[in-house]
Amino acid sequence: MSKKASLNFRFRYLTRTVLCLFAVCSPSLFGADAVLQRLPAALLVPGGAAVVPTASDAIRGEYKGERVLLARFEGEQYAIIGIPLSAKPGLQTFTLDNRAGETETLGFSIADKAYTEQRLTIKNQRQVNPNETDMTRIQAESAEMKAAFRSWDEALVPTFSMIPPVDGVRSSSFGLKRFFNGEPRAPHSGMDIAADEGTPIVAPAAGRILATGNYFFNGNTIILDHGHGLISLYCHMNTIDVEVGRQVIAGEQIGRVGQTGRVTGPHLHWSVNLNNTRIDPALFLAD
User: Fold this and answer.
1) According to a count of CB atoms within 10 Å of the terminal CB, is the N or C end of the chain lower?
2) How many helices (H) and strands (E) does the chain have?
3) Is 220 exposed, middle or buried (0-12, 13-18, 19+ CB in 10 A)?
4) What's the whole-number average pLDDT of the chain?
5) 181 DSSP 8-state letter
6) Residue 72's pLDDT is what?
7) pLDDT at residue 41 tops 80
8) Rounded CA separation 173/189 (Å)
9) Do the bridges between strand 34-35 and strand 66-73 make them parallel or antiparallel, or are there none, so unpaired?
10) Distance between the two ends of the chain, CA-based, in angstroms?
């Protein structure tokens, strides 16, 4: 693509592009017909989220093979897209299908972000270098969670404005480059909130309990589906106080803080997933 063509492409699709920190959808409309009541701006970076204006007849979007949430705000339609930590700076593209069966390619540009390092000491060496039996369990659990993160529930109303899930102190932020006992591991895919063991954990937004279980790394875990590809994860809990399939509202208790799984102390690990992409939970918290 020539420099001029690239600039024209960016002008057409990016001049009106903003990032979604939090928005609220109408309880009566879904998918491409969902109506956002707020559309604040944020940063276009790996681990962030983009809101891109689209044609009004778009009915389905895909980004990196994953379905994208479509919604309306002040009479215009937007694609709300989670940006993976692995995304490279520069142009990102996604596709939209319209009611006529046509496919259009749109784009948005992201900047680089330098996430800091975090070095942790884990006493249980198996939590750093699992044995063969552990790996069999880990692989099965990973498959379960991957399937859950790809859930797309049309009946649930997503909201991008959340309350903190626990009263505590943020101990680790999203995106940290992590080292366990000096060995590099995957970046931190959520927010850690330190709190005393037994502190209540609440749903930050309404949704349906999609899965619960005890996992090798995550310990006692809840996966909460907010609808249309917006899913949240809660790990290392002491107790799980809800069952799969239960509908919960914002502020309703779902469990208590613990230190199960791979931990250095009691805390809640909270992740938010949009279009099967882990993004910074801080984007969803109101001021």
Assistant:
1) C
2) 2, 21
3) buried
4) 85
5) T
6) 78
7) no
8) 9
9) parallel
10) 41
Domains and CATH numbers, the chain: 3-110 (2.60.40.1590), 117-284 (2.70.70.10)
The C-alpha atoms of residue 233 and residue 85 are separated, in whole angstroms, by 17
Instruction: List 183's β-bridge partners, or say none.
Output: 180
Answer for the pair 231, 223: CB distance below 8 angstroms, yes or no.
yes
CA gap 220, 215 in Å, rounded: 6
List all residues 6 or more positions away from 222 whose beta carbon is below 8 Å from its beta carbon. 209, 211, 212, 233, 234, 237, 240, 242, 254, 255
Beta-bridge mates of residue 91: 109
Contact 121, 181 (CB under 8 A): yes
Which secondary-structure segment (H or E) carries 172? strand 169-172
Q: Which of 105, 53, 52, 42 is nearest to 76 (CA)?
A: 53
C-alpha atoms less than 13 angstroms from C-alpha of 16 in its C-beta half-sphere:
12
The per-residue pLDDT for range 177-189, each reduced to its tens digit, is 878 888 878 888 8
- Going by the DSSP 8-state scheme, the letter that residue 145 receives in this structure is H
Going from the C-alpha of 183 to that of each of 109, 114, 164, 172, the distances in angstroms are: 33, 20, 31, 18
Q: Alpha-carbon distance 178 to 185, whole Å?
A: 6
How many other CB atoms are there within 10 angstroms of residue 198's CB atom?
Answer: 11
CB atoms within 10 A of CB 88: 9
- pLDDT value at position 287? 61
> What's the CA angle centered on 250, arms 142 and 29, to 5 degrees?
90
Distance CA 194, CA 269 (A): 9
The alpha carbon of residue 225 and the mean position of all alpha carbons in its chain are separated, in whole angstroms, by 11
Tell me the C-alpha distance between 261 and 137, whole Å: 13
Question: Given the structure tokens 């903003």, which residue do they identify?
Answer: 18
